[in-house]
Amino acid sequence: MAAPRKYPDELRERATRMVLDALEGDPGSRRGVFRRVGEQLGINDETLRGWVRRSQIDAGDRPGTTSKDAERIAELERENRELKRANHILKAASAFFAAELDRPQSR
C-alpha cells in the first residue's frame, strides 16, 4: 500500500503551474524561481523541482519515462513475477507427480 501524500494534488498542480509561468517570463533564473515559489507555498525547492521535472516529462517537453509508462512497467513486472512463481509451482508439481507414477505399485 502506498504512503499517503504530504501535499494535495491541487497544490502540486498550482505550484508547478506557477514555476512554469515564471520560467516562461525569465528562463535564466531557474534556481531563484524554485526557491521563491517554494517559500511562498511552504514547499522545499528540490521537491518542487522534482514535480516540475515530472510534469515536463509527462507533457512530453522533456525526455524520460512518463508516469503512465512507469505504472504500466511496474504492473507488468508484478505480473511477470507472479507468472514465474506459478511456473515454478507447476514444474515442482509435475516433477512430484512424475516421480509418483514411476514408483512401483504394490497391490
Architecture overview:
This protein is mainly α and 107 residues long. It has two domains: 7-64, Arc Repressor Mutant, subunit A (Orthogonal Bundle), CATH 1.10.10.10; 66-107. 75% of the residues lie in helices and 0% in strands. It is rod-shaped and about 90 Å long.
List the secondary-structure elements in sequence, H or E. Answer: HHHH
Q: What is the β-strand count? A: 0
CATH architectural category of the largest domain: Orthogonal Bundle
Radius of gyration: 26 Å
Strand content: under 5%
CATH superfamily of the largest domain: Winged helix-like DNA-binding domain superfamily/Winged helix DNA-binding domain
Number of domains: 2
Supply the number of helical segments: 4
Helix content: over 70%
- What's the shape? rod-shaped
List its salient traits.
mainly alpha, Arc Repressor Mutant, subunit A, 4 helices
SSE blueprint:
Elements: H1 9-25, H2 30-41, H3 45-59, H4 67-102
Summarize the structure.
This protein has 107 residues and is mainly alpha-helical. The chain contains four helices and no strands.
